[in-house]
Amino acid sequence: MRHRATLAAGGALVALVLAAALLSLVWTPYDPMHVDAAHRLAAPGGGHLLGTDQFGRDVASRLMTGARTTVFVGVVAVGFAVLLGVPAGIAAGMSDGALGALVMRVGDFLLAFPALLLAIMLAAVYGTSTLTAMTAIGIASAPGFARVGRAATLRVMAAEYIDAARLARRSRTAIAWRHVLPNIRDVLIVQVSVAFATAVLAEAALSYLGLGTPPPTPSWGRMLLDSQELLFSKPELCLWPGLAVAAAVLGLNLFGDGLRDRFDPTLEGVR
Question: How does the record say this protein sits in the membrane (predicted)?
Answer without folding.
Answer: Multi-pass membrane protein
